[in-house]
Amino acid sequence: MSSLFYFFKESLQGFARNLSTTLGSIITIFLSLLIIGVFLVGGTIVERLVSSIESEVSITAYIADDAPQESIDAVMNSVRSMGGVESVGFTTKDQALEKFKESMTTNPEIIEQLDGTNPLPASIDVSLSDPQKVDEIAGAIEGDETFRSICDNPEDPADSLKYGQKTVDRLFSVTKYVRYLGVALVLLLVFIALVFINNTIRLAIMARRKEIAIMRLVGASNGFIRGPFLMEGALHALIGSLLAVGVLQVLRVYAIPKLQSALSFLSLDVSGHTYVMIYVMLVVAGLVIGLLGAAFAMRRYLKV
After folding, report:
1. Are 259 and 268 in contact (CB under 8 A)?
2. CA atoms within 13 A on the CB side of 103
3. Which pLDDT value is given to residue 243?
4. Of 5, 134, 151, 212, which has the maximum CB count within 10 A?
5. CB 58 within 8 Å of CB 128
6. How far apart are CA 256 and CA 159, in angstroms?
7. Residues of the chain under the 50 pLDDT cut
8. For position 208, what pLDDT does the model report?
């Protein structure tokens, strides 16, 4: 216990000796962890939005008006057996027209132009349990000989399938690159924080080099000499991480609700459990960064 008190006292003296560098180290850790925390919260929100969009990914296969029911049933049964398919339904021409009318209530003149006719085809509607397989499933439906014989455009069966391929591909591509960018940003920020802590501990070692030499002469252990520098690195990280957690909590309480009210069509809600997990991760990550930065500096500049 007395050793810990000594380490703590010496680390505080190290703060005072190199105040500007110490503040630079703390601010760097604070900003790095804050950005990481914002990214984690934002990433959680984006993942929820993407999952919501993915859950709505579906395939619509348009059927010719004269298609026999047994062929339609055969295609539906075939699709149900495919992996990644959650459910398969059927929309008749009349049901398709009713849905179209409901969607055009603000533009009744469009309905009037139909003049009692129904140009809309019937369709097989496929809901997916695994949106990532949308291309695979759509390709399998297109290649089905029975479907090719009953689709509303036999000359080009692909034209009878609608599933927003470009939108889906763009969505998956964007989320993939966002994840890669996030990992790269986190690694860069961690590296910068390590460099600052390394430099701060190096200056502390240089400032105390005479005292360290005396401690060696009187037989102080390596752990006793290293202790204050490890404690200093840990304190830098702890202060920086707690500042980051405090700012994130302020954003959670004041900024997120206002943003949610302004963007009511999006769900920006993140559970309290998720926030607690992020806060714990930031504090632990900060301590690891602080201890590693101090350890690297001692290994290079403190020959004990």
Report:
1. yes
2. 6
3. 92
4. 151
5. yes
6. 43
7. 304
8. 64
